[in-house]
Automatic annotation (TrEMBL):
This is HTH cro/C1-type domain-containing protein. Residues 26-80 form the HTH cro/C1-type domain. SUPFAM superfamilies: lambda repressor-like DNA-binding domains, RmlC-like cupins. GO terms for cellular component: cytosol. Gene3D superfamilies: Jelly Rolls (2.60.120.10), lambda repressor-like DNA-binding domains (1.10.260.40). Residues 1-23 are annotated as: Disordered. CDD domains: cupin_XRE_C, HTH_XRE. Keywords: DNA-binding.
Length: 213
């Protein structure tokens, strides 16, 4: 069971109120990563019952809780506030270009934007930008369908034992295969990805590295 070594909500760190979607976001993120309630509750030093209530909209997580959750899942804390300014009729349906959730930093060589409104569907859409010279190293197979199209630049993509060099307009698809990618060019490469089921945040499973200076 999750630990309860700190108070379930404090006056110095007021709960995050007025946004019932935060709990749903936590649950979707946890489910997409296949993390048990007990594991996340232990990380938060909260009880499983408290976390379950937050996920069901019956309780509130503090800003401190959200910071811990964002670090645990390697997502920015702004992930939990991304829909606040969206009109009610667009939430869960539309993502405006200025409201895309960004993942990663330029230091990693790979930055991504979540194009899907949330993680509740059968697939996720991502826009990935690979810095020149960035490569992933070997990535293990996973039980997902991945596909994408090169919007600009070029990508060297290894699927199993075969390696392909893709250019603008080329597309690809694979399932449950070990992969590796590299940007062999001198400019950024932009890819639109679709992945099913959602695994949200590709950075969680690969560690791109920039070339040595």
């Amino acid at each position: 069971m999750g630990r309860s070594s700190r108070t379930e909500g404090t006056a110095s760190d007021p709960p995050r109120a007025g946004h019932s979607g935060v709990g749903a976001d936590i649950r979707l993120l946890r489910k997409s990563r296949k993390v048990p309630l007990t594991e996340l509750a232990a990380e938060l030093k909260r009880s499983v019952g408290w976390l379950s209530q937050v996920e069901r909209g019956l309780g509130s997580a503090s800003i401190a809780d959200l910071r811990i959750i964002s670090r645990f899942f390697s997502v920015p804390i702004s992930f939990f506030f991304r829909n606040e300014d969206a009109p009610a009729e667009e939430r869960g349906l539309i993502v405006r270009v200025g409201a895309r959730q960004q993942l990663g930093t330029s230091e990693t060589g790979l930055t991504e934007e979540l194009l899907s409104p949330d993680l509740s569907g059968d697939f996720e859409m991502l826009r990935s930008v690979f810095a020149p010279g960035t490569e992933s190293g070997p990535l293990p197979a996973r039980p997902t369908n991945d596909g994408g199209v090169v919007v600009s630049g070029e990508l060297e993509l290894s699927i199993g034992e075969r390696t392909f060099r893709l250019g603008e307009g080329d597309s690809f698809q694979f399932r449950d295969r070990p992969t590796r990618w590299r940007n062999p060019g001198k400019r950024e490469t932009v890819i639109f990805w679709v992945c099913s089921p959602p695994v949200y945040c590709r950075l969680r499973r690969c560690h791109p590295s920039l070339p040595s200076p």
